[in-house]
Amino acid sequence: VKTKNMELSEAKTAIESSLPNFSTKDLCSLGGQTTWTFATSEHVFKFARTKKVAPLLKNEKKISAKLTNELPVEIPHSITSREWSALPYSSYPIIHGNALNPNLLFGAHGTSIAQQIGELLTSFHIAENSELTNKQDSNVTVDITDKETFSRLPVPMRFAAGYALRKATTLLKPERPSLIHSNLKFHHLHMKNDQLVGLTGLSKARIGDIAHDFSSIFAEVGWKGIDDVLRFYKRPLGGKFEERVEFFYWTAPLHDINYA
Known about the structure:
Shape: globular
CATH superfamily of the largest domain: Aminoglycoside phosphotransferase (APH), C-terminal lobe
CATH class of the largest domain: Alpha Beta
Strand order of the largest sheet: 1-2-3-5-4
Protein name: Aminoglycoside phosphotransferase domain-containing protein
Low-confidence stretches: 132-138
Pfam families: APH
CATH topology of the largest domain: Aminoglycoside 3'-phosphotransferase, Chain: A, domain 2
Domain Aminoglycoside phosphotransferase: 42-218
Organism: marine metagenome
Radius of gyration: 19 Å
Order of helices and strands: HEEEHEEEHHHEEEEHH
Strand content: 15-25%
InterPro entries: Aminoglycoside_PTrfase, Kinase-like_dom_sf
């Protein structure tokens, strides 16, 4: 069931009621797909749109705590959790900077920016560690996608899509599962004075295939951009790297549908 948009006044009331020490001066909306996101000059506030999104906010807090001081950029920290209208929301100190413009990778500072992204992903893609987050079995992911997304399609198309997804998944098993961001859109990369200073959007981070993160780069800047970043990336890519990147590029929207 689609929920109505959260108004700015509602967010302000929620924050002032449950976080009285947090200022709501100049509160503005930042939109968001799975959360209603608002911000002031000091804090970001993320409200879950549905109960299904609640685990994502918990995951973001868990991942942020584990990665503190492990990355070359700032990430959300000191995350505070509250509840409003039976749904959770979280807040953290804002990371100042502008969203990375994809065109900058092809500009005068493109090599430096590609290097910073490559170094960031090298640090982020640590080897699988059960203490960081639960590994999500690919077969479970496919079953959920088939049930929750493809069930909305006409029957012949549903079976065809489900078969294609299962076949592709069996061919593209990650050789070295690692912690991945899983939602590495460029608006989650924060720049200041041509320097990468922050990384946000950690709510979907999980153990998975590194090609998933590179598929987000592919969506923004194509293979040319990926090749530039790979010059500075120090982790093994595994076999069929290009096929895996394109697989995640084409299936990425399915996750957004599930959490819509």
